Amino acid sequence: MRPGVPDPLGARCRTGPDGVAGTGFALWAGGAEAVELCLFDDDGSERRHRLAGPTLGVWHGFLPGVGPGQRYGYRVHGRWDPWTGARWNPAKLLLDPYARAVDGDFAPPGAVPGQPAALPAEVHGHVRDWPQRRHADTVRDERDSAPYVPKGVVVGDAAPVPERERPRVPWADSVVYELHVRGFTMRHPGVPEELRGTYAGLAHPAAVAHLRTLGVTAVELLPVHQFAHEDHLLRRGLRNYWGYNPVCCFAPHAGYAASGTRGEQVTEFREMVRALHAAGIEVLLDVVHNHTAEGDEHGPTYSLRGIDNRGHYRLPAHDPRRCTDHTGCGNTLDVSQPHVLRLVTDSLRYWVREMGVDGFRFDLASALARRAHGVDMLSPFLSAVGQDPVLRRVKLIAEPWDLGPGGYQVGAFPPPWTEWNDRYRDTVRDFWRGALPDPRDLGHRLSGSSDLYGGGGRHPWASLNHVTAHDGFTLRDLVTYTHKRNEANGEGNRDGAPENRSWNCGTEGETDDPQVRALRTRQIRNLLTTLLLSTGVPMLVAGDEMGRTQGGNNNAYCQDSPTSWVDWSLLAEPRWRALLELAARLVRLRRAHPVLRRRSFFSGQPRAEGGLRDLAWFTARGEEMTQADWFAPGATVAMFLSGRDIPERDERGAPVRDDSFLCVLHAGAEDLAFRLPGPPWGAWYEPVVDTACEGEPDAGPYPAGDEVLVAARSVLVLRVRERGTAEV
Fold first, then answer.
1. 455 CB-near residues (< 8 Å, 6+ apart)
2. Across the strands, what pairs with 375?
3. Where are the beta strands (DSSP E) in 291-446?
4. Which of 429, 404, 403, 416 is CA-nearest to residue 499?
5. pLDDT tens sequence across 123-160
6. What is the pLDDT confidence band of residue 728, given thresholds at 50, 70 and 90?
7. How close are the terminal C-alpha atoms of the chain, in Å?
């Protein structure tokens, strides 16, 4: 072992001072007394080397002859004093937080999926099974954990992904598609069986073809950082499926690799990104930097807890034996500490530069913005990202809440952040189930949520609009179930949100009643159409465009099974194939018309004297809505979008001009006679979308002033013609 250098952190292949190739190792462990590097041979034998240091809290060394594929871990020595938050235990092999690949799993040795098992007690730093449970976390466990935990893998540096290969889709033009790497292809008939559920499976032409057919511009992947399975799930024969239980934020999850786990997963992930980029599709990662898989003080010791518990986690000042839990997952990473902030930002830059990703969705982002006094939009994390020359150029999406005090921050994140807009989700759901008291909130949501994002230099794309997400009902279940059905999770149906703003269309669960089935399919079309025609960035969820169901499970985080996997056989059914065709047609309509992808908020005023307002609202009488109409109960909203009044210029500096559209959303239970507004709004109206029918509308065009029949619970979208005849 040579002394090495303290920077960069992690295991990095390089040439030593005497010209011999090897690997430099560096680990931040600020309060530790000593650090041992442990190398593992294929037979499991272990060789230990003491690192030099600390240098500014970093322990470091260089080993000649060590190269890619070498498995390793750390043992960190220090005090055992849980009452002050000190939990060092050299009996526990620790995963390098900078490891770029991980070999092995956190399931018990020999565990069979679907069969109950438990985490070995040896992976805990304390005696897990101490007779007095409430004191167990204070008694150090001296047993070796190495046989029971995965190892880091040395991986060589990769060339940065060239900028010319990135699609670089502007936010305003984006359509995001949330999917699970494993679940998207596990049942795909066009993907070879050996590739299903893997990065290579997602890169397969059959999988990419669906994304291109649908027309989405970005996939948002549920967590792909290496994650662990919770003990309470293993004991019930279940596994963590979503992946919100991370242990290493540099390593792609080995379980999604078809090619191997000794560094091959890194290459496979990069090739997946390259395939998606070649199809014009960006790759966004759902990242979890608010907590780790180590849980609360009774949880296992995998990495950060054993490296320096006090240096990585938020601990209550009055009781540092415990963990502060703003996440609902047992612990909260303290990103206000410089080395933790460095860990997170180093990871983000790595995924952008070397892995090629185009942006991130941050789980429970409010936890990352916390300081000692609460959530702060001038926090170290937001400030660091906002000025970083790499990170400030990629797409940044906040889940703008956590479970701590003051954690709900929808509308508060600064530019250039985009936010998951749950206000949009709730309002659209309430409108189509007939639960909105008046149309005011719907008007805001359809037109870009300027009440939330109109200030501080933000734009309509700050609102990521969604009706469903991985968490909650699927779109089909949203119109099929009023009550959740999570019994398969083994928690007595107590998990998952009790209120989903869903409506079962009169019958709970699946039914053969043709009228109920027809109404449900129409409601799905209504929700999809509303989402894809709203101002902001739409997010679809994999399978919603073809009627995927989870059988009423609204919290399928532990269902690595057909319950969660996309069911491609649905496309054999005409009604679900027609739904996919509608979704693709709506995406094409959105792409073709800049008035549906506005880069600035509506003003509600004409841009020039005598011109039309850029946004107007009408009653069923064909008259503009008054203040009283906004406060009156109503099941109908008609939105006029003027394509003549877009305050933008194209790349050549020319004014942007487009068609105008009239969108009539009618959630009432009876058909509606709607009078089309007359001049100056339009002369003729041509239907382009009618959710009352499965295919394209074949009626019209209609002259201004005519009454058109809008079917009960439907959306009618009309392109406006300012002149012409019925032959337009």
1. none
2. 370
3. 359-362, 370-371, 374-375, 395-398, 418-421
4. 429
5. 999 999 999 988 999 999 999 999 999 999 999 999 99
6. very low
7. 80
Q: How many CA atoms lie within 13 Å of 553's alpha carbon, on the beta-carbon side?
A: 23
Q: Specify the pairing of strand 395-398 against strand 418-421.
A: parallel
In angstroms, rounded to a whole number, what is the distance separating the alpha carbons of residues 544 and 533?
Answer: 17
CA distance 723 to 563: 52
Section 362-391 average pLDDT: 96
Q: How far apart are CA 139 and CA 128, in angstroms?
A: 9
Structure tokens at 429: 């759901």
Instruction: Tell me phi and psi for residue 541, to 5 degrees.
Output: -115, 135
Strand partners, 292: none
**Count of CB atoms situated within 10 Å of the CB of 283:** 25
Strand order of the β-sheet with 34-40 is 46-50, 34-40, 71-77, 151-153, 102-103
Residue 637 · residue 665 · CB < 8 Å: yes
Phi first, then psi: give them for residue 101, nearest 5 degrees. Answer: -155, 150
Q: Residue 376 has which token pair?
A: 């702060």
Active site residues: 363, 399
- The number of C-alpha atoms within 13 Å of 392 and in the hemisphere containing its C-beta is 11
Indicate the pairing of strand 34-40 with strand 71-77: antiparallel
Q: Angle, nearest 10°, between helix axes 264-278 and 205-214?
A: 40
Query: What is the DSSP secondary-structure string of 424-485?
Result: HHHHHHHHHTT--SSSHHHHHHHTT-HHHHSSTT--GGGEEE-S--SSS--HHHHTT-SS--
CA dihedral sign of residues 391, 395, 400, 402: negative
pLDDT at 410: 97
| 3-state SS track over 678-723 | CCCCCCEEEEEEECCCCCCCCCCCEECCCEEEECCCEEEEEEEECC
Residue 63: what pLDDT? 97
How many whole angstroms separate alpha carbon 647 and alpha carbon 402?
37
With beta carbons less than 8 A apart as the criterion, state whether 75 and 51 touch: no
| Collapsed DSSP state (helix, strand, coil) of residue 137 | helix
Strand partners, 103: 151
